[in-house]
Specification:
This is Aminopeptidase. Keywords: Aminopeptidase, Hydrolase, Protease, Signal. GO terms for molecular function: aminopeptidase activity; metallopeptidase activity; zinc ion binding. The protein is built from 18 helices and 32 strands. By secondary structure, it is of the alpha+beta class. The protein has a domain of 153 residues. The protein has a seven-stranded mixed β-sheet with strand order 4-7-2-1-13-17-15. A six-stranded mixed β-sheet has the order 16-19-20-21-23-22. Strands 24, 25, 26, 27 and 30 form a five-stranded mixed β-sheet that branches. Strand 20, helix 8 and strand 21 form a beta-alpha-beta unit. Helix 9 packs across helix 10, helix 10 crosses helix 12 and helix 13 crosses helix 14. The radius of gyration is 31 Å and the shape is elongated.
């Protein structure tokens, strides 16, 4: 037994050598995560008492194509499944973000007008000066109970509080009516997630309509009411429910919508109806329900009649639709598990020939890959609608950019952007439409997870396109930027300084690192699928994701979440010091030592081009040892000597200059030209997060060694990644990509 003094001295020695490199990055997250309870467990799955609310809608609306206006009436039935009585309800009025003096315009800052600027573009001026000249926002005509009694309500920017006549007890429901109208915004003039695009040449409109109805805010076990204002960046927190929606439009319009069409015989021609039914059985090629020639003919006419399209949707969190007489419409069935949803595309002639070639194919590829990695797609349709300069998602339907030149030509760049945005927006059916996270608070939980899945789908189905987004390599320019203009992933989107990297590409890159370098595909994929299964049609929070990924894999990832999601650290590992030893064997007599100091790693290659590890290694002798203490056995010293005789030992010191804990992936190149990839888990930094030294035993003599050879870890400074310094990895990386 060691004495107390000797143990103290050992601890003191360890502290002296390692304390300066300790920042708590491997400590458990502890109170950074909420305490598990009966609603959300420590394993990351819903607890035995988990509950969530429900809101059903019956909506009737009319789209005025002459005045670009929507008038609607809805009946909302709200079910209180919580254990608490509710004295009021919160309803989201997202169109109010376009009201005059809305919270977004009142609180938007500006860089100011530079001294030497004497003019502004008109659209730039209306944005900077906070006056679009547009009469936006909901015009509420009535808020009543189902008996016709007025309800007491207060509108606070984009939120409306309805004071209930009596508390809504646990297990009860309450129904109420709202009548409203609003002017539809011109997206080309003032932007917006929904609105219309005007086509001057043929005097027609294409409407992509969303956030068009007052909708229930989320009330849950985590926040109570999620009634944060809609300022513009933070998207939506919504409650699941069933929808019955009647959409009245000019009779020559085609309507694409969330849900299943209930009355195709009433709104389609006999030819369109026949094609629509045929598409449901067509798995090998798309069926054109409305052809381009037919759409062109409609552009020249104006029907004076109206048609009402009836759609039903079950267990969805939202509802959106698109309408235009310009729509070409194609569809193809896809087999997903036990279901055969219709993949459909709606687009004007301006999208062709690109859209008829690629859109529905991209929808199908997305459903296949996402279903395999999460859960089988549960809905009857998945729709891609073409609209200029937008990518926006809703249950079963999304609006996507990607338009060829006016003469119909396009290059691979346009095609890649168009295909990838369709994959991304269709993919949002999973995150957050099914795995229903709170977008208003945690943008990365839908955008980041979906961007990762977009990358996985593009990698699988489109390997020949010039796609290089959402990867560790792609975020290097952001990660090496100024920390003053950076926020952690775990930041509310309204406070984010660079929403694209911080909500989309950095979380995706983190998951690529997690899958490829930390957990491995087998463990990651199983855990990711388990998270999707656990939280499908529920309301997960960040801790539920973090905990599930660990629970389903037996990989401790607290260091990973803390570094990638809670900090602005980056990966910058320096190969700072290299020594070469050789184990002494029979007839071996070697002397000398090779040592490279940080900042002078390239010196060796100048001494001997053919042998960067120049000179002779330092000789290491193995001396006999014996068993100590109470053991009675003997050590076979000769066997140990023989096992290591002649081996090359390379001692490498790595410095963590960027602060982000990372695995270490090395590419060894030997003097005979052969190569070896070696991966070291991130736990190597657990005792000293700033600097580690490790011995590597090799049979062959090494010519050079490179950290992160395939740019999978996002290292921001490749100049210090290799020994000898300056050894280029680009040629090897390019060759790897070709192979």
């Amino acid at each position: 037994m060691k004495s107390t003094l000797s143990i103290f001295l050992m601890l003191l020695a360890f502290t002296a050598t390692s304390q300066t490199g300790w920042q708590g990055k491997f400590e458990q997250m502890g109170n950074m995560l909420p305490t598990p309870n009966q609603y959300r467990t420590g394993s990351g799955e819903p607890g035995p008492s988990y509950w969530q609310q429900k809101a059903d809608y019956k909506i009737k609306l009319e789209l005025d194509d002459e005045n670009q206006k929507i008038t609607g009436s809805e009946v909302v039935t709200y079910y209180n499944n919580s254990p608490s009585a509710l004295r009021y309800l919160w309803v989201q009025l997202d169109q109010n973000v376009r009201q005059k003096d809305n919270l977004s315009s009142l609180t938007s800052g500006t860089r100011g007008i530079p001294d030497n600027v004497t003019s502004l573009r008109t659209t730039q001026a209306q944005s900077a000066l906070g006056d679009t000249g547009f009469d936006g926002g909901f015009k509420l005509m009535a808020v009543k109970d189902t008996k016709g009694n007025d309800l007491d309500y207060v509108v606070n920017f984009t939120m409306m509080k309805i004071n209930l006549p009596e508390p809504l007890e646990s297990g009860d429901s309450f129904s109420f009516n709202i009548d409203w109208w609003y002017n539809i915004n011109d997206r080309g003039l003032i932007g917006g997630r929904s609105g219309y695009e005007y086509f001057k040449e043929d005097d027609n409109y294409l409407y992509t309509i969303a956030q068009f109805y007052p909708r229930m805010a989320v009330y849950d076990d985590f926040n109570g009411w999620q009634n944060k204002q809609f300022i513009g960046s933070g998207e939506f927190a919504l409650t699941f429910g069933d929808f019955e929606v009647e959409i009245t439009v000019p009779s020559d319009h085609i309507v694409a919508s969330t849900g299943e069409l209930q009355n195709p015989k009433d709104v389609l021609t006999s030819k369109e109806l026949q094609r629509y039914e045929r598409a449901k059985e067509s798995f090998d090629k798309q069926v054109f329900i409305v052809t381009e020639d037919e759409a062109k003919k409609k552009e020249k006419s104006r029907s004076s009649k109206k048609s009402t399209w009836v759609y039903h949707a079950e267990n969805v969190r939202d509802f959106a639709f698109a309408s235009s007489r310009k729509f070409i419409w194609d569809a193809q069935a896809v087999k997903v598990g036990e279901k055969t949803p219709l993949a459909m595309s709606y687009y004007p002639k301006e999208g062709n020939p690109l859209w008829e070639r690629e859109s529905t194919k991209a929808v199908i590829n997305t459903l296949i890959n996402y279903s395999e990695m999460t859960i089988d797609y549960p809905y009857p349709v998945a729709i891609s609608v073409h609209a200029a300069s937008i990518g926006m998602e809703y249950p079963m339907i999304c609006f996507n950019f990607g338009r060829p030149r006016p003469d119909g030509t396009y290059n691979d760049f346009v095609k890649t952007r168009m295909v990838s945005v369709i994959v991304h927006e269709v993919g949002h059916n999973y995150f957050p439409m099914i795995i229903n996270s709170d977008e208003r608070q945690w943008a990365w939980m839908d955008e980041g997870l979906d961007s990762f899945m977009e990358y996985m789908t593009m990698k699988r189905f489109y390997p020949d396109l010039p796609y290089n987004s959402n990867t560790p390599e792609a975020i290097i320019p952001y990660m090496k930027g100024s920390k003053d203009y950076m926020r952690p992933i775990m930041t509310n989107p309204e406070q984010s300084l660079q929403l694209g990297p911080e909500a989309y590409s950095k979380p995706s890159a983190a998951l690529v690192v997690l899958r490829e370098e930390v957990m491995g595909p087998e463990l990651f994929d199983a855990a990711f699928k388990e998270y999707s299964r656990r939280w499908a049609f529920k309301h997960p929070k960040p801790a539920d994701f973090f905990r599930t990924m660990e629970d389903a894999s037996a990989v401790d990832l607290d260091w990973f979440w803390k570094g990638w999601f809670f900090s602005t650290d980056n990966v910058d590992v320096e190969v700072a010091d290299v020594k070469w030893f050789k184990i002494k064997g029979e007839n071996k007599s070697l002397e000398g030592e090779v040592k490279a100091q940080a900042g002078n790693l390239g010196g060796n290659s100048q001494t001997n081009e053919d042998n960067p590890f120049y000179g002779q290694p330092q000789e290491l002798s193995l001396n006999d040892d014996q068993v100590r203490g109470e053991y009675r056995g003997e050590i076979d010293n000769e066997a140990i000597k023989q096992r290591f005789a002649g081996k090359n030992v390379y001692q490498i010191t790595f410095k963590n200059n960027g602060g982000l804990i990372t695995p270490i992936t090395l590419e060894w190149t030997y003097k005979d030209g052969s190569k070896e990839i070696e991966k070291i888990p991130a736990e190597i930094w657990r005792r000293n997060e700033a600097e580690v030294t490790k011995l590597f035993v090799k049979d062959k003599e090494v010519d050079n060694v490179v950290f992160d050879p395939f740019k999978q870890l996002g290292d921001v400074n490749t100049e210090n990644n290799s020994f000898p310094q300056g050894e280029s990895r680009n040629s090897r990386f390019d060759q790897f990509k070709k192979n």
